[in-house]
Each structure stands twice: as structure tokens, then as C-alpha cells.
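User: Working on a comparison across species. This one is Thioredoxin reductase (NADPH) from Saccharothrix ecbatanensis. Can you predict its structure so I can line it up against the others?
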Amino acid sequence: MEIGDSGYSSDRYEVVVIGGGAAGLNAALVLGRARRSVAVVDSGEPRNAPAEGVHGFLSRDGMPPGELLAVGRDEVARYGGRFVSGRVARVEQEAGDGPSFRVVLEDGTVLAAARVVVATGLRDELPDVPGVREGWGAYALHCPYCHGYEVADGPLGILGTHERSAHQALLVRQWSSDLVFFAVRPLSDDDRAALTKRGIRIVDGPVHAVTAAGVETEAEGLVPRRAVFVAPEFLPRDGFLDALGCERDDAGWVRVDGWGATSVPGVYAAGNVVDAMAQVVSAAAAGAKAGVAVNADLVFTAA
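Assistant: Here's the predicted structure for Thioredoxin reductase (NADPH) from Saccharothrix ecbatanensis:
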């Protein structure tokens, strides 16, 4: 089956987008409107699924994440985009004069593409504290810009298990004056002074559990809290790129330029897979920008 004027069959596309979140869908939308044949590979496991709503996204504030993705999928399909359910095992370069790739799924399905956009996001590696995973997105939160308004002025906590936790606490203080920092790992003198200066109470020592009722501590027993903010370790979902040899930074994240291009010609990346701090709206914007860059790449390579 041919799509547009590309001449590619149903298993060969001008662009394969890996990841069906905001970045991937917006890249596919832009490319579909540019009359490119596009397939989106999606595992159906969005990172923000536990959240009640998407926030900070103009005209979509408060929309449930699943609803946002469903609308996006419908829009991509309207322009001829195809969706393939599954996980990518690896991406291989094909021999030839220009960029050409084989996207191999775990079930053996192979999609051929002239260009690839990686938008697989990241996974949150949570601290090994009982209750954190069970309450993730409900009473165990991460981003104050995503959840702070909904719990504002309530008794809040910071689970101090990460080097970013003190920084997180200083941000969360913007939303509540009743803030307790649970120093599971030792605090530096500078961090302790900064927290104290902002009126943040510190409870030192082990935490036994985080629950909907509060934080179970060794020092004080249950400290009632409406919600607890946690700083996870961010791990990009990009292992399938290893064989391509994409250049990485010192922290191990794939490097991209301002348009999402990696060091491997024809491979682009956008959203949380290359930017841990990207919110839904900025991930979507990065996907749109990558879509523009990929279309231009195809236009001028063929010229």
C-alpha cells in the first residue's frame, strides 16, 4: 500500500517514530501534515499514566493523560499515520548511499524507514521505601509544577533520598509553608542551612514507609502529611540505540542538537528521552521541532 507520493509500502515508511507520548505524537502529527508516511511504535505504557491530569499545557490544563494521548492519536491517524503496538528491541542501519534503518520490535516485526525519531521518554527509578511506588502519582509526587497547586497550603513532605532532594524542597516551599524534609541521607551543612532559612523543618534518620496518612519515621513515628515529594533517578529508555553508536554526554544521555538530531545522520530524539526536565508541553514542542527538521532533512537530501 502506498501513502501519499512516497512510494513506500505498508512495512516501509519515510519515518518511524518510536514512542507514542506527547513528543512522539507531535512529531508524527507534523510529519503527517507534511504528507510523509509515518508509523508510530508505542508500548502503551506512558510515564504519566498514574497522574490525574496534565498541567501547564495551554488549553489542556487538567486533561487526563490518557485522554490527551487518545486525542493525539486520532489527530495523527487523520493524516494517515499508522500505529504499531510493541517495544523496539534494536535499530539497525541499512547499507546504502543515504540514511536507512530497520526498526526491529521484540516480537520480530521489522519496520524500514528513511528516518527515525526516538521519543521513548524515561523511567523513574524510585527509592526503595515502602509505599512510594504504591502511591506514585497520588500521594507520592515528583514535579511541583505538575502537582503543587493541587496540594498547596497542605502539610507536605520531601523524602530526602537523592542529591536533588534539597533543591526540590526549596521549590516545593513555594506551595506550602508547612513543609517537612525527611533526611534519609545525610544533608550537607549548606543544604541544612538553606532549608532552615526557608522555615523547612528537618527530621533526620530512617523512613519506614510513605502512606496516604503521612511518613512513618524512626525518630518521630507517623508525621502526618497530605503528600510527599520524591526525587527519582531518571533513566532514559534508549538502550535499543546502543548498536547505532549515538554520541552520549558525560551522564550517559544521547546528545542532540537544537532540532533533535543525534550524531547519527537520520536519527532524531525528542522529549524526556533526551531531556529529563521536559514537561508534557515542552516535550510536545520538541517533537514538533524534530518533525520539522526530519521533513527538511528528507526534502533536501532528495533534492
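For your comparison, note: The chain has a mean pLDDT of 94.

User: Helpful, thanks.
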